[in-house]
User: Which sequence fits this backbone?
């Protein structure tokens, strides 16, 4: 997964949240490289724990990405 500067992604995520999106922060584990997705939508974290190896990644330093969920209205 391509990583972008933390604060750039957080700013873009905030803009999407204001429009009603549910945004999930994603990062790559700095130790084993596994892609991780935070469980809590619309919150941004500067550190993340890998579910595979337990390593704590400095997301603010290493960068991140996001997954966006839009609710479809009928």
Assistant:
């Amino acid at each position: 997964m391509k990583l972008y500067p933390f604060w750039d992604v957080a700013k873009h995520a905030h803009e999407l949240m204001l429009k009603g999106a549910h945004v999930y922060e994603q990062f790559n584990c700095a130790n084993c490289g596994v892609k991780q997705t935070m469980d809590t939508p619309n919150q941004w974290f500067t550190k993340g724990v890998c579910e595979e190896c337990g390593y704590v990644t400095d997301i603010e330093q290493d960068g991140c990405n996001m997954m966006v969920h839009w609710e479809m209205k009928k």
The beta strands are 22-28, 35-37, 47-49, 56-58, 65-69. Helices lie at 6-18, 59-62.
